[in-house]
From TrEMBL:
Domain Ig-like: 124-206
Protein name per UniProt: Uncharacterized LOC101476347
GO cellular component: plasma membrane
Major location (coarse): membrane
UniProtKB keywords: Membrane, Signal, Transmembrane, Transmembrane helix
Organism listed in the record: Maylandia zebra (zebra mbuna)
PROSITE patterns: IG_LIKE
Entry keyword GTP-binding: no
Coiled coil: none
Membrane-traversing stretches: 283-304
Keyword presence, Thylakoid: no
Native organism taxonomy: Eukaryota, Metazoa, Chordata, Craniata, Vertebrata
Alphabetical list of SUPFAM superfamilies matching this protein: Immunoglobulin
Length: 331
C-alpha cells in the first residue's frame, strides 16, 4: 500500500509541479505558479484546497470559478501555466494546502505549505510632538519625541540612550519624554523598531546640555530633518547675571583718645563692571556709552561756542572798517 502511494506521488510530481513552500507577509498577497501535463489535463478542472491530507481537504477555489472567493483565485492559462492567487492575507491563512487536478479514480495533487509572516519594519522616523521652532528647551521646558515606522506590522518600539560609547535601554515605548531631570549631560538617543522578523534603528538624536537643571536648565535637541536652533541669546542673558553678593566681616581696631573699640564692618564685594542694569546690559557698557555721548556733546558745544566767537569778531571788524570809511569820507 505504501509503495502504491509513493508511485502515485511520483506520477503526480511528474504531471503537476508546484513550489513546495511559499512565504508571504500579512496583508499582502502571493501568486503560486504550477506546471501540468497539457496533453492529458488541458480541459480538466484544477482546484486549490486546504487540509492536512489528500483525503481531508476543503476546496477553496477552482478554475471553473464555481468556488472562487473574493480572496482566492485559480487561473488556468493552459500552456503558460496554472496560477493560484490569494490576496489580503491573514495569519490564519498559514497552513497546508493542495493544488489538485480532477482525474478519474484518483486526482493529481501536490502539497504546498503557506507561511504568513509579519511585514518587515522600515527605518523608524523621529519627530517632536510640539514644534521646536519656538525653542522651548532654551527655557527648560520638556519635549516629547515620537518614533514611528512607515511600514511593518506588530511593530514594537524601544528607546535607548547612547553615552560614553555605551547603549542603555530607557523604556519600551514609541514616545520619549525629555525634561530637565532626565537630561544631565551631553548624550544621544535613538529608537529601535522591531517585530518577529526584522529590526531597524533610527538616526541619532543629539542633546546638548548648556546649563544643568540645578542652574537654569538650558539644553538643545537636534533631530535630523527638524529645524536647527541654538540658545545663544538665552545664554548671553543667563551666564552674565548679577553675581551673588558675598559678604565678609572685617574687624578693624579704631583707636580713640579715651578708649579702643572694635567695629565690625560689613563689606560687600561684587563684580562691579559685570553688574547688569534693568535693561539687561552690563553696567560698564552703559557707562561707556553715556561717557561717549557726554564727550560728543561737549565737543559740539565747544564747536558752536567757537563759531559764535569767530562770527562776533568778524562782525566787529566789519563794523570798525565801516566806521573808518565813514570817518574818512566826512573829512
Amino acid at each position: 500500500m505504501k509503495i502504491f502511494y509513493l508511485v502515485l506521488l511520483f506520477q503526480a510530481s511528474l504531471q503537476l509541479e508546484c513550489d513546495k513552500e511559499i512565504t508571504a507577509h500579512v496583508g499582502g498577497e502571493f501568486i503560486l505558479k504550477c506546471k501540468y501535463g497539457i496533453n492529458h489535463f488541458l480541459y480538466s478542472k484544477k482546484y486549490w484546497c486546504r487540509g492536512p491530507s489528500r483525503s481531508n481537504c476543503e476546496i477553496v477555489a477552482d478554475s471553473e470559478n464555481s468556488r472562487n472567493t473574493h480572496r482566492s483565485q485559480v487561473i488556468d492559462l493552459n500552456r503558460r501555466g496554472l496560477f493560484v492567487k490569494v490576496t489580503n492575507l491573514r495569519f490564519d491563512d498559514a497552513g497546508a494546502y493542495w493544488v489538485g487536478i480532477d482525474k478519474i479514480y484518483a486526482d493529481i495533487m501536490t502539497q504546498v505549505k503557506v507561511i504568513i509572516t509579519e511585514v518587515p519594519v522600515s527605518k523608524p522616523r523621529l519627530w517632536p510632538l510640539s514644534s521646536l521652532v519656538d525653542r522651548p528647551t532654551c527655557w527648560g521646558k520638556s519635549v516629547t519625541l515620537r518614533c514611528g515606522c512607515a511600514k511593518g506590522t506588530g511593530v514594537r518600539y524601544a528607546w535607548y540612550q547612547h553615552i560614553d560609547r555605551k547603549d542603555f535601554l530607557l523604556h519600551k515605548s514609541s514616545d520619549l519624554y525629555l525634561h530637565c531631570g532626565a537630561v544631565q549631560k551631553d548624550c544621544s538617543y535613538f529608537c529601535i523598531g522591531s517585530n518577529d522578523i526584522s529590526s531597524e534603528k533610527s538616526e541619532l538624536i543629539s542633546v546638548q546640555v548648556l546649563m544643568p537643571a540645578n542652574s537654569s536648565c538650558i539644553y538643545v535637541v537636534n533631530i535630523q530633518g527638524q529645524p536647527i536652533y541654538d540658545c545663544a541669546d538665552r545664554m548671553s542673558t543667563t551666564t552674565v547675571t548679577t553675581p551673588t553678593l558675598t559678604s565678609c566681616l572685617v574687624i578693624m581696631n579704631i583707636s580713640d583718645n579715651t578708649r579702643n573699640q572694635s567695629l565690625q564692618l560689613n563689606e560687600t564685594t561684587q563684580g562691579f563692571f559685570f553688574i547688569r542694569s534693568l535693561t539687561g546690559l552690563p553696567l560698564w557698557y552703559i557707562l561707556l556709552r553715556w561717557s561717549s555721548f557726554l564727550a560728543l556733546l561737549i565737543i559740539i558745544c565747544t564747536a558752536v561756542k567757537c563759531t559764535r566767537r569767530r562770527y562776533k569778531k568778524y562782525a566787529n571788524q566789519k563794523k570798525n572798517i565801516h566806521c573808518r570809511r565813514i570817518y574818512h569820507a566826512c573829512q
